[in-house]
Q: What sequence folds into this?
């Protein structure tokens, strides 16, 4: 195992080669994935109850997702 701290390993000489060898985000997908269209069903905001708390998940005008408590 490399003893270099992560920060210096990703900023020092040869850093691009090390960054390219990291897993691609698509390879780190969760086991269960749902399309946002299936979750929102034409709406722009939904409520999510989690551990007795209500959260709001909404789609912004720019098409991004915002989760608030």
A:
């Amino acid at each position: 195992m490399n003893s270099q701290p992560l920060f210096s390993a990703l900023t020092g000489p040869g850093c691009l080669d090390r960054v390219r060898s990291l897993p691609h985000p698509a390879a780190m997908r969760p086991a269960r994935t749902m399309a946002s269209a299936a979750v929102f069903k034409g709406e722009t905001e939904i409520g999510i109850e989690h551990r007795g708390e209500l959260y709001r998940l909404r789609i912004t005008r720019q098409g991004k997702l915002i989760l608030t408590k």
Strands lie at 45-50, 53-59, 65-68. The mean pLDDT is 81. Residues 15-20 form the longest helix (6 residues).
